[in-house]
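Pasting as-is:
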Amino acid sequence: MRSWLQTTWGMRVAWLVPLLSLVLVTDLTAPIWIGSTVLALILIPSARKATMATVYRSVPISLAIGAAVGCAMSFLVDPWLEPAVEAWTGSEIDLSQLADLPGDPGQYVIWLILGIGFGGFWEEIAFRGYFIGWGARLFGGWTALPLTVGLAIVFGYGHIWQDLPGAILTGISGLLFGLTYIACDRKLLPAITAHSVANFIGVTQIYLHGL
Protein backbone atom coordinates (compact mmCIF):
# COMPACT_ATOMS: atom_id res chain seq x y z
CA MET A 1 0.00 0.00 0.00
CA ARG A 2 2.73 2.43 0.95
CA SER A 3 4.63 1.77 -2.28
CA TRP A 4 1.45 2.34 -4.30
CA LEU A 5 1.05 5.72 -2.60
CA GLN A 6 4.38 6.76 -4.10
CA THR A 7 3.06 6.23 -7.64
CA THR A 8 1.52 9.08 -9.63
CA TRP A 9 -2.00 7.71 -9.39
CA GLY A 10 -1.57 6.73 -5.77
CA MET A 11 -0.59 10.28 -4.88
CA ARG A 12 -3.44 11.74 -6.91
CA VAL A 13 -5.94 9.53 -5.09
CA ALA A 14 -4.41 10.54 -1.75
CA TRP A 15 -4.78 14.19 -2.76
CA LEU A 16 -8.39 13.69 -3.88
CA VAL A 17 -9.78 11.81 -0.86
CA PRO A 18 -9.79 14.73 1.61
CA LEU A 19 -11.17 17.05 -1.08
CA LEU A 20 -14.08 14.71 -1.78
CA SER A 21 -14.85 14.57 1.93
CA LEU A 22 -15.26 18.37 1.91
CA VAL A 23 -17.46 18.38 -1.19
CA LEU A 24 -19.64 15.40 -0.22
CA VAL A 25 -20.53 16.62 3.25
CA THR A 26 -21.48 13.98 5.85
CA ASP A 27 -21.19 13.62 9.62
CA LEU A 28 -17.74 12.13 8.98
CA THR A 29 -16.45 15.00 6.86
CA ALA A 30 -14.14 16.50 9.50
CA PRO A 31 -12.44 13.26 10.63
CA ILE A 32 -12.04 12.00 7.05
CA TRP A 33 -10.68 15.35 5.83
CA ILE A 34 -8.25 15.85 8.68
CA GLY A 35 -7.30 12.19 9.03
CA SER A 36 -6.66 11.53 5.34
CA THR A 37 -4.67 14.75 4.99
CA VAL A 38 -2.46 13.99 8.00
CA LEU A 39 -2.00 10.38 6.85
CA ALA A 40 -0.88 11.48 3.39
CA LEU A 41 1.56 13.98 4.88
CA ILE A 42 3.03 11.23 7.05
CA LEU A 43 3.29 8.57 4.34
CA ILE A 44 4.17 10.59 1.23
CA PRO A 45 7.42 12.63 1.33
CA SER A 46 6.54 14.67 -1.77
CA ALA A 47 3.27 15.73 -0.14
CA ARG A 48 5.15 17.00 2.90
CA LYS A 49 7.72 18.83 0.81
CA ALA A 50 5.16 20.65 -1.33
CA THR A 51 2.67 21.30 1.46
CA MET A 52 5.06 22.49 4.13
CA ALA A 53 7.14 24.88 2.00
CA THR A 54 6.89 27.82 4.36
CA VAL A 55 9.13 30.88 4.03
CA TYR A 56 8.98 33.33 1.14
CA ARG A 57 12.37 35.08 0.82
CA SER A 58 12.77 35.51 4.59
CA VAL A 59 10.69 35.19 7.75
CA PRO A 60 10.37 38.99 8.25
CA ILE A 61 9.29 39.50 4.63
CA SER A 62 6.78 36.65 4.86
CA LEU A 63 5.33 38.02 8.10
CA ALA A 64 5.17 41.57 6.74
CA ILE A 65 3.34 40.51 3.58
CA GLY A 66 0.89 38.40 5.54
CA ALA A 67 0.22 41.12 8.10
CA ALA A 68 -0.36 43.68 5.34
CA VAL A 69 -2.83 41.40 3.55
CA GLY A 70 -4.66 40.51 6.76
CA CYS A 71 -4.98 44.15 7.82
CA ALA A 72 -6.07 45.24 4.34
CA MET A 73 -8.78 42.58 4.31
CA SER A 74 -10.03 43.59 7.76
CA PHE A 75 -9.92 47.38 7.46
CA LEU A 76 -10.18 48.11 3.72
CA VAL A 77 -12.18 45.25 2.16
CA ASP A 78 -14.58 43.89 4.81
CA PRO A 79 -16.17 47.23 5.85
CA TRP A 80 -17.72 47.73 2.40
CA LEU A 81 -17.84 44.14 1.12
CA GLU A 82 -19.88 42.68 3.97
CA PRO A 83 -22.77 45.19 3.66
CA ALA A 84 -22.68 44.81 -0.13
CA VAL A 85 -22.97 41.01 0.04
CA GLU A 86 -25.74 41.19 2.64
CA ALA A 87 -27.65 43.68 0.48
CA TRP A 88 -27.19 41.50 -2.60
CA THR A 89 -28.36 38.30 -0.89
CA GLY A 90 -31.09 39.95 1.15
CA SER A 91 -29.90 38.24 4.33
CA GLU A 92 -27.38 38.81 7.08
CA ILE A 93 -24.29 36.83 7.97
CA ASP A 94 -25.12 34.38 10.77
CA LEU A 95 -22.62 34.73 13.61
CA SER A 96 -24.85 33.17 16.26
CA GLN A 97 -22.11 30.70 17.19
CA LEU A 98 -20.17 33.68 18.52
CA ALA A 99 -23.07 35.00 20.59
CA ASP A 100 -21.22 34.43 23.88
CA LEU A 101 -18.01 36.12 22.70
CA PRO A 102 -18.70 39.85 23.27
CA GLY A 103 -17.17 40.95 26.56
CA ASP A 104 -16.29 37.42 27.72
CA PRO A 105 -12.50 36.98 28.20
CA GLY A 106 -12.74 33.18 28.36
CA GLN A 107 -14.65 32.98 25.08
CA TYR A 108 -12.22 35.47 23.59
CA VAL A 109 -9.26 33.18 24.34
CA ILE A 110 -11.12 30.13 23.00
CA TRP A 111 -12.06 31.87 19.74
CA LEU A 112 -8.55 33.23 19.29
CA ILE A 113 -7.17 29.70 19.64
CA LEU A 114 -9.70 28.42 17.11
CA GLY A 115 -9.30 31.37 14.76
CA ILE A 116 -5.51 31.32 14.72
CA GLY A 117 -4.74 27.67 15.47
CA PHE A 118 -7.38 25.97 13.34
CA GLY A 119 -8.16 28.78 10.90
CA GLY A 120 -4.81 30.45 10.46
CA PHE A 121 -2.61 27.39 10.59
CA TRP A 122 -4.55 24.22 9.82
CA GLU A 123 -6.82 25.62 7.11
CA GLU A 124 -3.87 27.21 5.33
CA ILE A 125 -1.83 24.01 5.53
CA ALA A 126 -4.76 21.97 4.24
CA PHE A 127 -6.35 24.29 1.68
CA ARG A 128 -3.40 26.25 0.37
CA GLY A 129 -0.40 24.01 1.09
CA TYR A 130 -1.92 20.57 0.52
CA PHE A 131 -4.58 21.15 -2.12
CA ILE A 132 -2.93 23.96 -4.08
CA GLY A 133 0.79 23.46 -3.40
CA TRP A 134 0.86 19.70 -3.69
CA GLY A 135 -1.92 19.72 -6.28
CA ALA A 136 0.15 21.98 -8.55
CA ARG A 137 3.06 19.54 -8.22
CA LEU A 138 0.84 16.59 -9.12
CA PHE A 139 -1.16 18.14 -11.95
CA GLY A 140 1.18 20.85 -13.24
CA GLY A 141 2.04 24.37 -12.14
CA TRP A 142 -0.60 25.86 -14.46
CA THR A 143 -3.32 24.32 -12.25
CA ALA A 144 -2.43 26.51 -9.24
CA LEU A 145 -4.81 29.34 -10.20
CA PRO A 146 -7.79 27.13 -11.16
CA LEU A 147 -7.26 25.17 -7.94
CA THR A 148 -7.22 28.42 -5.98
CA VAL A 149 -10.56 29.50 -7.45
CA GLY A 150 -12.17 26.08 -7.03
CA LEU A 151 -10.95 25.68 -3.47
CA ALA A 152 -12.19 29.16 -2.57
CA ILE A 153 -15.67 27.92 -3.49
CA VAL A 154 -15.20 24.78 -1.38
CA PHE A 155 -13.82 26.91 1.45
CA GLY A 156 -16.85 29.18 1.35
CA TYR A 157 -19.25 26.23 1.18
CA GLY A 158 -17.61 24.85 4.31
CA HIS A 159 -18.80 27.98 6.14
CA ILE A 160 -22.41 27.78 4.99
CA TRP A 161 -23.38 27.65 8.67
CA GLN A 162 -22.86 31.43 8.52
CA ASP A 163 -25.70 31.55 5.96
CA LEU A 164 -25.20 32.57 2.32
CA PRO A 165 -23.48 35.92 3.01
CA GLY A 166 -21.02 34.21 5.35
CA ALA A 167 -20.25 31.53 2.78
CA ILE A 168 -19.70 34.12 0.03
CA LEU A 169 -17.50 36.34 2.20
CA THR A 170 -15.48 33.36 3.41
CA GLY A 171 -15.06 32.18 -0.17
CA ILE A 172 -13.73 35.60 -1.16
CA SER A 173 -11.36 35.50 1.81
CA GLY A 174 -10.20 32.05 0.74
CA LEU A 175 -9.56 33.40 -2.76
CA LEU A 176 -7.44 36.25 -1.35
CA PHE A 177 -5.48 33.88 0.88
CA GLY A 178 -4.93 31.61 -2.11
CA LEU A 179 -3.75 34.46 -4.33
CA THR A 180 -1.36 35.52 -1.57
CA TYR A 181 -0.05 31.96 -1.46
CA ILE A 182 0.48 31.84 -5.23
CA ALA A 183 2.03 35.32 -5.37
CA CYS A 184 4.52 34.25 -2.70
CA ASP A 185 5.80 31.31 -4.76
CA ARG A 186 3.48 28.84 -3.01
CA LYS A 187 5.01 29.43 0.42
CA LEU A 188 2.72 29.11 3.43
CA LEU A 189 3.91 31.67 5.96
CA PRO A 190 2.46 34.78 4.25
CA ALA A 191 -0.96 33.12 3.87
CA ILE A 192 -0.88 31.74 7.42
CA THR A 193 -0.04 35.19 8.75
CA ALA A 194 -2.73 36.89 6.65
CA HIS A 195 -5.41 34.44 7.80
CA SER A 196 -4.29 34.62 11.44
CA VAL A 197 -4.20 38.43 11.46
CA ALA A 198 -7.63 38.69 9.80
CA ASN A 199 -9.13 36.24 12.30
CA PHE A 200 -7.44 37.97 15.24
CA ILE A 201 -8.87 41.32 14.19
CA GLY A 202 -12.33 39.87 13.53
CA VAL A 203 -12.52 38.06 16.87
CA THR A 204 -11.20 41.09 18.74
CA GLN A 205 -13.72 43.43 17.10
CA ILE A 206 -16.60 41.16 18.13
CA TYR A 207 -15.21 40.81 21.65
CA LEU A 208 -14.93 44.59 22.04
CA HIS A 209 -17.93 45.84 20.07
CA GLY A 210 -20.37 42.92 19.80
CA LEU A 211 -21.91 41.21 16.79
